[in-house]
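Ligand-bound model needed. magnesium ion.
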Amino acid sequence: MKSSAFNSQGLTSNPQATVLAVDNLLYAYSQQEPVLREISFTLNAGERVALMGPTGSGKSTLLENIIGVKQPQKGEIWINGIPVEANTLPQVRRQIGFSFQDANDQLFMPTILEDITFGPRNYGVPPAIAIDKARQLLADFGLEAYANRSAHELSGGQRRLAALAAILALEPQILILDEPTNGLDPAWRRKLARVLLNLPAQAMLIASHDLHWLGKVTQRGLVLSGGYIQIDRNIQPLLRDADTLERLGLPIDW
Ligand SMILES: Nc1ncnc2c1ncn2[C@@H]1O[C@H](COP(=O)(O)OP(=O)(O)OP(=O)(O)O)[C@@H](O)[C@H]1O
Ligand SMILES: [Mg+2]
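Prediction:
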């Protein structure tokens, strides 16, 4: 990935700084039992953290609370010391890059080039610079030939890559990714891992069922199950603990 739009300084590491704090979060969809009951954890600067948990355990719901798309009934969320609330959302969102589980929720412009330049242009980046950067990102993700196509004309994996390019174009400090490897072949899964490992972002929280891939990219794993964070542990010992994973609904070999 020579002459890439990604720079390769690695994560900023200032271990004292708390980048994200989630404190005693409770979230229920209307008229239903809470999906998230008492969720508390922090992410420090320099950390890449996996969010694991069975299908329907609430991973996407938790991430959507963190970025302020959903509002918890109880508890607080802080991003770099700023509480996530209606009036702080523009400020908070400026620091976060979030990819939805469904890439279609992210791509809405007539062409993917415009999808990728949309965010930077919104933040006042001159069009020529935004377009240069977008073309470099498209090249990095093997999509240069598709710049002028709409997302509907891409494959599922290509849409996923285009959505990630649109997020990285904003050079976010904090990356929050929901199932980023969905639809990607092994070569792209590896390439995406390398991209993420080389980003100068402050911290990452990545929800995925791709346990093997999480083991390559993250250092720490949270397991969400039954509305609680059941495990918060270094990723390698966690991935070796097949019994615990099995008990929490995450059989490692399947
Ligand atoms: N809009 C909604 N209204 C009501 N219930 C919902 C809604 N969205 C999700 N749920 C329920 O909330 C629970 C958590 O869903 P969520 O999408 O957060 O799980 P997840 O861990 O991300 O699952 P997956 O691994 O399939 O992505 C599920 O039981 C789901 O059925
Ligand atoms: Mg989900």
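DSSP finds nine helices and ten strands in the chain.
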